[in-house]
Specification:
The protein is of the alpha+beta class and 495 residues long. It folds into 3 domains: 204 residues, no CATH class; 121 residues, Protein Transport Mog1p, Chain A (3-Layer(aba) Sandwich), CATH 3.40.1000; 52 residues. It is built from 16 helices and 16 strands. The strands form 4 sheets. A 7-stranded antiparallel beta sheet has the order 7-8-9-13-12-11-10. Strands 1-3-2 form a 3-stranded mixed beta sheet. α3 packs across α5 and α5 crosses α9. The radius of gyration is 27 Å and the shape is globular.
């Protein structure tokens, strides 16, 4: 190919690409939060429509907290932040999900959701405002819309690129479009938007905090508290989880975040006026921590907690649970049983191969991979060589261990039904979340003032917290891994 032909093809390529882009994007939209230019293929009205559609799905799938006073308080704090944001005219809605999980998320059009579990780890109104401001930052910067638009542009670019290649080479190749997959709103709302967008939401959130009269340093404080929780969860269970993937998006010493918050504080002439936490404590006092009756309404009550190994699952209702030092078995006479054992992972092999080579089960039927709660495994059915009964087999990797499941079906007349129960139980296997497992009935937050010689280790001895009581109390109060409150400081206990 001579130089003149090459130059012609380059020009043709550029022209075709720009032509398609301008046919798709009527203008280069200005980001309402940053002032920068970014291609957005969606009107604000359509953004609101999508938000409403997804909001209705949330209402249908997640239980909402029924505490109207707490909800009114959260809405008050959120509205104060939203009205000083870059998009104050949006009709923001704030909701509390009745879940012990540590998370919050936002949907396009002004919908903000915060889990009850995250609220328990905030220690001031400013920290609560920081969580809400971060989510508002995602909305004002239209991060979800940007991500969706970039997906469309990638599709367009792939198609154009393929066409140009065909013109240049005569190969007849046409570039394939990138698959859109599942709903982008669901994917990004809970898991986060990537480091750049998360930092931008932090920076915008800090700006909104200042505008609303809060100390912007609260953004760093609440992220530190939540990162400590995630760090501890990862240490004891091997599974981090947590809010917006903090480990991935915010390093332990996040200088970029610190610089962004400092810059917001330096350029602001606003005075910090929101320092009284009396109303915050009044609304958080008595809040349920861990599982509530309402959050368990759609879940079988036969949930089992293995505190030492850090896992939990739901067995079929009315099945009796029997424990030894190494195993746990659930069974129903003349119906079926399931036995769970744990062992150290010795080889780096796939769960499917583990079932075949280590559990000695070949010829697996209904074979399928498992991917649940960020855990990988495999399952299927096989006929027992010893009893001739059908077995439900599974292996799930969790931290440094592999957990094996052997479920036996005893009732020949209900094979499909019992197998479905066994598989459903296996699919509930996950890590115990921090602050989740308590003894007895619903546990609640109780604020007290620290005495002169307050000691978390002493208080933990009489706490209702079943697992890691001292560490959990420290995490709840922002004193992890060390430190103690001063006399007269308010601290959260669990009663």
């Amino acid at each position: 190919m001579n130089n003149s032909n090459y130059t012609m093809i380059k020009k043709l390529s550029s022209a075709l690409f720009l032509g398609v882009c301008f046919s798709v994007i009527s203008s280069c939209a200005i980001n309402p939060a940053t002032g920068g230019a970014n291609p957005v293929l969606m009107s604000e009205n359509r953004e609101k429509e999508i938000g409403l559609e997804e909001h209705e799905k949330v209402l249908a799938s997640m239980p909402l907290l029924e505490d109207q006073e707490l909800l009114a308080y959260v809405r008050e704090v959120g509205s104060n932040v939203a009205k000083v944001s870059h998009r104050p005219d949006l009709e923001y809605q704030f909701h509390i999900i009745d879940s012990p999980d540590i998370n919050a998320f936002a949907l396009p059009g002004g919908y903000v959701y915060v889990n009850r579990g995250l609220l328990t780890f905030t220690n001031s109104e400013a920290e609560l405002a920081a969580v809400l401001a971060h989510e508002i930052g995602h909305i004002t910067a239209r991060h979800a819309v940007q991500q969706q638009s970039r997906g469309r542009l990638a599709n367009t670019a792939a198609t154009v690129g393929g066409f140009v290649t065909a013109v240049a080479t005569g190969s007849g190749y046409v570039g394939s479009q990138i698959s859109q997959g599942a709903s982008i709103w669901a994917q990004t709302g809970l898991s986060g938007f990537g480091r750049e967008h998360e930092l931008e939401a932090d920076s915008l959130g800090a700006e909104y905090l200042v505008n609303a009269g809060y100390d912007p340093a609260a953004m760093i404080e609440v992220i530190t508290v939540l990162k400590n929780q995630e760090d501890f969860n990862r240490r004891v269970t091997g599974n981090g989880g947590g809010y917006h993937g903090l480990f991935a998006t915010h390093p332990r010493s996040d200088t970029r975040l610190q610089q962004a918050v400092e810059e917001v504080g330096n350029i602001s002439d606003n005075v910090i006026t929101q320092t009284d936490n009396t109303k915050f404590r009044e609304n958080m006092d008595g809040m349920i921590i861990g599982q509530s009756q309402n959050s368990q309404s759609n879940e079988a009550r036969n949930r089992y907690y293995q505190a030492l190994l850090g896992y939990t699952l739901v067995f079929p209702e009315e099945w009796e649970i029997d424990e030894t030092t190494t195993t746990v078995t659930a069974s129903l006479p003349n119906s079926g049983s399931i036995k769970i054992e744990a062992q150290r992972i010795q080889e780096n092999i796939e769960p499917r191969v583990f079932i075949r080579d280590k559990m000695g089960v070949s010829g697996l039927q209904k074979s399928e991979a498992l991917a649940q709660y960020r855990l990988l495994g495999h399952t299927g059915t096989a006929v027992s060589a010893e009893t001739g009964n059908l077995e439900r087999i599974a292996a799930i990797y969790f931290g440094p261990r592999v957990y094996t499941f052997r479920g036996e079906i005893l009732d020949d007349t209900s094979v499909d039904e019992i197998d479905a129960l066994l598989l459903a139980s296996i699919r509930t296997f996950r890590a115990i979340q921090r602050g989740e497992a308590f003894t007895g009935s619903e546990a609640k937050i109780k604020y007290v003032q620290a005495s002169e010689h307050f000691d978390f280790s002493v208080v933990a001895q009489s706490s209702r917290i079943a697992n890691y009581p001292e560490e959990t109390l420290r995490l709840l109060n922002g004193y992890y891994p060390i430190g103690s409150p001063e006399e007269g400081d308010w601290v959260k206990l669990v009663e």
